[in-house]
Write a structure and sequence with these properties.
Elements (H helix, E strand, L loop, with lengths): L12 E2 L3 E5 L5 H8 L16 H16 L4 E7 L4 E12 L4 E8 L8 H16 L4 E7 L3 H9 L3 E11 L4 E10 L6
Parallel strand pairs: 5-6
Antiparallel strand pairs: 1-2, 2-3, 3-4, 4-5, 6-8, 7-8
Length: 187
Amino acid sequence: MINPFENNEIPILETEQYLIRGLTLENAPALFEFISDAETMKFVTPHPIKTLREMEKKIKNHLANFQMEKEIPWVIIEKSSCEVIGLFRLHKLHMWHKKAEMGAYLHRDYHKKGVMTEVLKTILPFVFNELGLNRIVGDLFAENQGSKKLLEKFGFHQDGILRQTDFDGSKFHDTIVYSLLKKEFNQ
């Protein structure tokens, strides 16, 4: 088991095509490019960030949460281009209760290309075997078919539907909560 908070260092993970390394303030311009895009963020928020300064503030908040042992924020880098193409976070992290939620944003050009499948094949063993967590949660808008398929592919269990939890300015959205327990994880 490792504790990334002991040495104050976000662990680096690697897949065949992607490097998953700690978020830094220098990543703000690359992240802003797609986290400010309404189409990319449609299943997350109706109000994506509008300025680079706002992106920098968000990164500082993620890094402060890491310092408080509440989050592990990574960027996803495509090895062949060295470009930042995504952000992946374990948030609402609680080491005593051995649980976290996961969240990811991916550049629109990389949607439906298998990126998150490859990333989760590395993240999930890390979460259960290295961090020693017992439960990982993914919650998503009910309309987000791609994420539903992804979580189901990895054996996540649908815990329930939270009715009309989010408002996008014109309509309410249901949220589906999925979870995976360590004992259910098939390596």
